[in-house]
Amino acid sequence: MPCEDTSALSNGMVVLCEGLFQQNNSSISFIDFNNGAVDNSFFANRVGRQLGDTGNDMQKYGGKIYVVVNISSTIEVLDASTFTSIEQISMINGGTSKQPRSLYFHNGNVYVTCYDGFVDVIDTTSLNVIQRIAVGTNPEGLTVSGNKLYVSNSGGLNAPVMDSTVSVIDLTTHQEIQKITVGLNPGPMITDQAGDVYVIARGNYSSIPSRMVRIDATTDQVAEQFSFDASGVTHFNNKFLVSYYDYSTSQNTVGLFDPANEVMENPSFMGLADVTTLYNVQYNVGRDQIFVSDAMNFTNTGYVRVYSNAGVYSHSYHVGLNPSKMVFYD
Amino acid sequence: MLISCSSYGQLDSIQLIPEVDILDTRNSLFWSLRDWDYISTEKIQELQPLDAADIIQKFAGTSIKSYGGLGGLKTVSVHGLGTNHSAIVVDGQSLVNSQSGQVNLGQLSGDNLTSVETSSGRQKLHTIPVSAQIAGNSIVLNTFENSFSKSGFQLRSSFKYGSYNHQSAYVGLKYTNANWLFSGMGTFRRADGNYDYSVQNGFQTLEGKRHNNDFLNYSFGGTIGRQGERTRFRAGYRQSETDQGLPGAVLLYNQTQNERLRTGNKTAFADFYYRNDPWIIRAYANGRHNNVRYADPDYLNAAGELIVDYLNRSISGGVVVQFYPMWDKLHFYGGVEQVVSDLHVSDTTFALPVRFHNYGILGVEYFVKKFILKAHISEQYVSERNNNGVNAQDRFRINPYASIEYDDDRKWKHMLWYRNSFRMPSFNELYYNNIGNNNLVPEDAHQLNYGLVLTAYNRTKFNARLRSNVYINFIENKIIAIPTKNLFVWSMQNIGKARVYGFETMLNLEAKFNKGWKMSIDANYSYQRSLDYTGKDSPTYKHQIAYIPLHTANFDVSVYYKKTGLRISNYFTSLRYSLNENVEQNEVEAFLITDLSIFHRFVVKEKHAISVQFLVKNVFDQSYAYIRSFVMPGRNYLISLSYAFN
Q: What is d(CA A276, CA B366) in angstroms, rounded to the nearest whole number?
């Protein structure tokens, strides 16, 4: 019997904990800011079943929360207020998993990168896949600038010959119009207020470093490659927080980047002494706090660590295995 | 029980003994064997094992990891040491797999096994290969086709049919006379493996059918042997070909696995045994050719599929010598062995490693009054060449072993031993693309064990034997995988430490009653507190290590009336953790599985024996898993018909 608790959520946050491959142990935790209580079986308790294998993305759009579960190849659509299931969309195509990865919302559609080389367009009202847009190999991140969708083609499963391109898609025709070569193994993407698109080309994890690249969205040309290490990027008011975890030295850094002037203002903006393995960084405007997910050693349960807007550590919550994406309730 | 009572099992069981322990004539056969972990032909037949793992899990202190299905990956860990610390010896030859360092017990058929014995570190056998004598522990299997028997023709055959369209056939034929042995064998095994399962998914029960779990295997081979008054020579060939689906984990909401594995094993072997008091010499050699093709037709790379071929070859040769200058007082044993193995992978970015592994052992056994003092030192020198990149450094190690035993020749036997051993990192651990780390050093193990044997009764009609061990094992430089480049790219590191505090006890009872009734009980219980000691600051410090159960137990009862028997077999394992962190979400549930077997033997004239057996596995239809998300079959049936000619 599913739990009867369908009370509306407020003053808290949900955290997607990815779990580990082939363990069916992806989970979602709820942190109650009123009393600091953490429910690490929140998804199972509210929905009545497990989330599945390897959750990769979770975002809110309108009154719904969308969760991408990569290996189970599903998208869970939940009522954002009560966290009850609206629909589970199976992302299986002709007997093969599409392996969905990341979400981006635009004009009533959710665009989903699928590792089988497509971006699926899902109507957020009907929750049907209305189109599959062919892109490059193993597409990863996506972002929108103007009337164009930018998709990073990682080619991660084709290693060592990985992809180096970003596909540009016309949002009217839903057709790919161009591929831009940006650097090896492109991943996370973001757009600044001026419409410039940034992508992190993650290199080959050895001789080619992981670097952020700026695309001029008017010309769709690479404008600049920055010289600092980067593995993730997120909005922080009108600036970016650029994060990097160095797997060889176990060093974590979060720098403050100003996209208006294209400069790294402070490469060590946050004090991360309390973080073992930086896995995701998100800023919540309502609370004016920075939230860092700490994956520990990836096989132990992780933490969400809370920082002030000046990057000063405040406190932590103990959550599930490999915490990553977060959604906040005011 | 040790001296098997079955019509034809006896010959094969006893056959084994002179080869391995004829030298211990100081005691009667029974006494010398009472401290062994040994399963006879008769028990093997009652268990109707699908493979060697089904038998090995009957030994205390073993933990089987099974991914389910006929032919599916099954590995064993003994006393909390990793799988790679176990040497698997079949017919006196070590199985070598330098690629993974592990032997898939699921691919060793149980049909022609005549005995299985384990040594959890206290090594008694000095005619097995040096590499096995000095490993952390060893499991020794013997087959019908490779043993000299009484003169004349002998035939063994069995036909099985079971649930999930499991069909298997085995025929082994042997001719022995005073000088010669000729034998040949063939097996065929197949199954659809599409068993139903149910798993708990939150508040829901998920019903499903295992998909892509089919298995097809055939094998054949033969042995030629010649024996004289002081010598025994054998040479043989075995080949096995397998094609199987890899069902993977039961992934929630997604059952699209179509990966396949094709495996081919070819082995040629020879050994020569010479006895001329006070000397015993055995020379052995084998060559192995193991090819594996892994195919994922749904892999999302540019080619739209992934096919990788692996070829792992090895040549081994060695000599073991035993010398008895004073039969009642002093024994020496020693040996050398050389193994050369390599690996070729179709993926050109993989290394091309070749390993030269040299083993040596020198030991002494001294008998004084009721004590036996024993010690040996072993050496290993490992040298590697990688023709496609950096190779691992050469390694040289010396490892000691020492034991003291007290035997009152009647009831009690006490044994205290210490073994220091290591296992080499496998080729996969050293060289696998991205994952491999060619700076790995060997993983070290220290085992300290006290054992006790109590033979309460040893009479014709009733005998009882109780054995117990307490042990402490330390594992250092434990090789574990951690992410070093991103979450999807893990790499091998020598950063682990573990301690195992264990206790086990084994009870064997056998009683014969009047009017043809007989009963036996084989029970054991094992406690293994296997703790992660890697780092004091780690959240898993002193947590129970993943997949090592704290408690395991077997309780098997057989009742016989003349030629008919009934065996109830129970196997229990307590909860385990799928990761080292001992938290609720990592728990893998405990299970108790009961199998029931009914058998009847017909003796047609003197030489023909037919037996029929009906087996119900998992009688109570439990949903269980050894490995998280790898659900095992529910209640299933097997009928077996065997014919033997002696």
A: 55
The C-alpha atoms of residue B159 and residue B166 are separated, in whole angstroms, by 11
- B33-83 pLDDT tens trace: 566 778 888 888 888 888 999 999 889 888 888 887 777 889 999 998 989
- B300 vs A117: CB contact, 8 Å cut-off? yes
pTM assigned to the model: 0.91
| Spatial strand order in the sheet of A175-181 | A139-145, A148-153, A165-170, A175-181
> What per-residue confidence (pLDDT) applies to B488?
60
Residue B605, sorted as left (phi over 0), alpha (psi -120 to 50) or beta, turns out to be left
Mean pLDDT of B187-212: 91
Cα A311 to Cα A306, A308, A317, B608: the distances in Å are: 9, 5, 17, 85
Share of chain A above pLDDT 70, in %: 99
Residue in A24, A90, A299 closest to B580 by CB: A299
Specify the higher pLDDT residue, B257 or B637: B637
Task: State pLDDT tens for residues B116-173.
Answer: 998 888 877 889 999 999 999 999 999 999 998 888 999 999 999 999 999 999 999 9
Candidates B311, B272, B276, B278; CA nearest to B293 is B311
Of B204, B540, B628, the CB nearest to A23: B628
Are A240 and A253 contacting, i.e. CB atoms less than 8 angstroms apart?
no
Q: Which residues of B touch A47 (CB under 8 A)?
A: 202
pLDDT at B24 over 90: no
Name every residue in B having a CB less than 8 A away from some CB of A. Answer: 201-204, 248-254, 256, 258, 298-302, 349, 433-434, 482-489, 538-540, 578-581, 583, 585-586, 628-629
The H or E element spanning position B600 is: strand B591-604
Contact between A71 and B581 using a beta-carbon 8 Å cutoff = no
Residues A52, A67: Cα–Cα separation, whole Å: 11
Residue in chain A nearest B248 by alpha carbon: A22
Among residues A236, A135, A153, A154, the alpha carbon closest in space to that of B486 is found at A154
Output the CA angle A21-A23-A29, nearest 5 degrees: 95
Exposure of B469 by Cβ count < 10 A (0-12 exposed, 13-18 middle, 19+ buried)?
Answer: buried
Average pLDDT over residues B220-230: 95
